[in-house]
Amino acid sequence: MKKILPDPDFIVWTGDDTPHVPNEDLGEEAVLNIIHNLTDIIQEVFPKTKVYSALGNHDYHPKSQLPAAQNYIYDQIAKMWQDWLDPQSQGTFAKGGFYTEKLLNRTGFRMLVLNTNLYYDQNKLTQNMADPAGQFSWADQVLTEAANNKEKVYIIGHVPPGFFEKKRSKPWFTPKFNKQYLDLIDKHHSVIAGQFFGHHHTDSFRMFYNTEGSPISTMFLSPGVTPWETTLPGVVNGANNPGIRVFEYDTQTLLVKDVVTYYLNLTHANAATGRWEKEYRLTESFRVPDASPASMHQVLERMANDRCYLQKYYEFNSVNYDLTECDSDCRIDHVCAAREVDFDRYEDCLAKEGAASIYGGLLPVLSVAVSLILTRQ
Question: Is residue 341 in some structural domain?
């Protein structure tokens, strides 16, 4: 990526840095050493670039059990990232794994880094809490102040709300936390310019709508650098080629103007020499003017109604690893996961799209995530 983009405005690192192995194969110090090594690599390659980093559910030991209070691992990572965090952010991060700062220290722009592992349905420590680490109330205050100060905000995190597009009805958040997150976005969508998450290792997105059905926000799910194959039961072709993406944005409004994804074709790399190359540019592949919520809504509608666009999206979803045809069930899984982050509306979507497929004759075919942000005026 240094050759492709030697001087990015900033880097977004959405977590999951350790091997996805049983807890007994790791430990606190092993987890910290891995994160430390990756931090050193990024600082060596991009020594002058600001990095905004979120914790993944595997960036703790035991995995996914991130606590809602200050602890040894939070403390140590805050120290590791001290070159990227201002003093107030270091304190906030040590207490709960989240923080906020002015984006590139510019007036009018803000980065909100969340620890959504606190809402993960595998986290046994937080399931019975009303607001783990007070993060929801804190984020509400940050976004309220952002509106008062006329700021635009990017939100980054690791575990996303909603459902996994490769396994029907597989959510990530505990239900009450999913609703709280949606309420937060709905309340503050006017200041939120984009959401950037990981966890899936796949290339996807999630739409957020108001009560009138108008698109109000988009969450971009970046593919993983690690070519990991999910171990979730029932998932077929759950692997991915390594992917890294560049977000091009308007420096005056934070509007996401385009998304360019680069990938390493492992089949070619194993046969010869590995080479990172451009996989696709969003505006070119889906024929939209930008990556705004309105444009991403168009992308979703084309996926839902045009078999060519759906197949294209499906292949991009695995970073061009799974090139098989996506049948009608596959279409339902991907469209409903992208369209409905709310649990009840997602189930309604499954029923509605399933009926349309059967009775309407609709037969379409169909980690560590590091995102580099490029200025494009």
Answer: no
Q: What is the CATH number of the domain that holds 73?
A: 3.30.750.180
Q: What is the 3-state secondary structure (H, E, C) of 130-162?
A: CCHHHHHHHHHHHHHHHHHCCCEEEEECCCCCC
Domain that holds residue 57: 10-289+367-375
Measured N-to-C along each axis, helices 135-148 and 175-188 cross at an angle, to the nearest 10 degrees, of: 10
**Phi first, then psi: what are they for 193, rounded to 5°?**
-95, -10
211: Cβ–Cβ under 8 A, 6 or more apart, which residues?
A: none
Report the half-sphere exposure of 145 (CA within 13 A, side-chain side).
Answer: 13
The rounded distance, in Å, linking the Cα atoms of 224 and 259 is 15
Answer for the pair 255, 267: CB distance below 8 angstroms, yes or no: no
Residue 171's region, left for phi above 0, alpha for psi from -120 to 50, else beta, is: beta
Residue-by-residue pLDDT tens, the chain, 377 positions: 898 899 999 999 999 988 878 889 889 999 999 999 999 999 999 999 999 999 999 999 999 999 999 999 999 999 999 999 999 999 999 999 999 999 999 999 999 999 999 999 999 999 999 999 999 999 999 999 999 999 999 999 999 999 999 999 999 999 999 999 999 999 999 999 999 999 988 999 999 999 999 999 999 999 988 876 777 777 777 788 999 999 999 999 999 999 999 999 888 888 888 889 999 999 999 999 999 999 999 999 999 999 999 999 999 999 998 899 999 999 999 999 999 999 999 999 999 998 765 444 443 333 334 444 454 44
Q: What is the DSSP string of 40-59?
A: HHHHHHSTT-EEEE---TTS
What does the alpha-carbon distance between residue 127 and residue 205 come to, in Å, rounded to a whole number?
26
| Contact assessment for residue 300 and residue 339, using Cβ atoms and an 8 Å cutoff | yes
Provide the H-helix boundaries in 149-245: 175-188
Q: What is the pTM of this model?
A: 0.93
Is there a contact between 111 and 154 (Cβ–Cβ < 8 Å)?
A: yes
Total number of domains constituting the chain:
1
* Domain contains 337: no
- For residue 152, which phi and psi values (nearest 5 degrees)? -105, 145
Residue 357 lies in a domain: no
